[in-house]
């Protein structure tokens, strides 16, 4: 029944979602090229505010727990499980004060209005998952950037989205580079729940009435742990609060 009801609602949703991407693409261009980074960031924040409102048409809600735990005026590495595009929309808007950049796959860097432009010009990096060597200098550069400017980076170490919500094993190479070149950073694990249900039927129709939950965990200073210990603690912290893991 949910799937049947979702068809007409999903059409309206996609029209609104697509309109936001098309409208904000030139706005981003003007902000970036005329007014610079800060103006561009505010345009991206506004875009994602409207994108979250589009998802409200589907009955989607967002809950961010423990935002007060996130340290200020230091580099931050957000490490999260990955379930759908809506992980990113939620993080950009609700954690906008932390100037988050993303480690993304290169395929997203072209062809998508607003999204591709932001990934290319907003401080994120685009890596080729088939060429690990290409990713090393890019991740190093991102680490140095957040270290210098006290900003944040978001990485999804599973590599690909979980279509069922069940966590996948974390890849370690990208995390080790981030830790090495951002030694004053704090790792902030985030557990994401129910985002996968937005696309449980595929790209169309959309899932309805989902309560997306983002659980922010206690920060850990990179300097206080070995790389191996920090990765192990981060992965354990993230997956233990993922619903599909708890239900195994």
Walk me through this protein's architecture.
This protein is globular. It contains eight helices and eight strands. Strands 1, 2, 3, 4, 5, 6, 7 and 8 form an eight-stranded mixed beta sheet that branches. The chain has a single domain (2-246), classed as Glycerol-3-phosphate (1)-acyltransferase (3-Layer(aba) Sandwich), CATH 3.40.1130. Helix 1 (2-35) packs antiparallel against helix 2 (37-56), helix 1 packs across helix 4 (115-121) and helix 2 (37-56) packs across helix 3 (85-94). With 248 residues, the chain is α/β, with parallel strands linked by helices. Helices cover 47% and strands 16% of the residues. The longest helix is centred in the N-terminal third of the chain and has 34 residues, at 2-35.
Please specify the SSE layout and strand pairing:
Elements: H1 2-35, H2 37-56, E1 61-65, E2 76-80, H3 85-94, E3 100-105, H4 115-121, E4 125-127, H5 132-149, E5 152-155, H6 173-181, E6 186-193, E7 211-216, E8 220-221, H7 227-240, H8 243-246
Parallel strand pairs: 1-7, 2-5, 2-6, 3-4, 3-5
Antiparallel strand pairs: 6-7, 6-8
The biggest beta sheet reads: 8 strands, mixed
CATH first level: Alpha Beta
Q: Sketch the topology as an H/E string, one letter per element.
A: HHEEHEHEHEHEEEHH
Task: Please state the second-level CATH architecture.
Answer: 3-Layer(aba) Sandwich
Count of the separate structural domains: 1
Can you give the helix content as a percent range? 40-55%
End-to-end separation:
27 Å
Structure classification: alpha/beta
CATH topology: Glycerol-3-phosphate (1)-acyltransferase
């Amino acid at each position: 029944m949910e799937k049947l009801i979702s068809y007409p609602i999903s059409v309206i949703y996609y029209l609104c979602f697509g309109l936001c991407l098309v409208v904000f693409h030139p706005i981003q261009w003007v902000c970036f090229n005329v007014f610079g980074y800060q103006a561009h960031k505010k345009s991206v924040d506004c875009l994602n505010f409207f994108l979250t409102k589009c998802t409200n048409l589907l009955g989607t809600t967002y809950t961010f727990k423990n935002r007060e735990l996130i340290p200020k005026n230091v580099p931050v590495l957000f490490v999260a499980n990955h379930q759908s595009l809506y992980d990113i929309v939620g993080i950009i808007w609700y954690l906008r004060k932390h100037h988050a950049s993303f480690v993304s796959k290169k395929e997203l860097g072209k062809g998508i209005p607003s999204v591709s432009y932001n990934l290319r010009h907003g401080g994120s990096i685009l890596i080729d998952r088939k060429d690990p060597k290409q990713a090393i200098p890019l991740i190093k550069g991102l680490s140095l950037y957040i270290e210098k400017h006290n900003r944040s980076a978001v990485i999804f170490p599973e590599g690909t989205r979980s279509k069922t919500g069940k966590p996948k094993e974390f890849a370690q190479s990208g995390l080790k580079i981030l830790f090495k070149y951002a030694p004053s950073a704090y790792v902030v694990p985030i557990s994401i729940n129910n985002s996968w249900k937005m696309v449980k039927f595929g790209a169309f129709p959309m899932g309805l009435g989902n309560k997306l939950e983002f659980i922010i965990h206690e920060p850990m200073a990179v300097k206080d742990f070995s790389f191996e210990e920090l990765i192990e603690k981060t992965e354990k912290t993230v997956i233990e609060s993922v619903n599909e893991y708890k239900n195994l």
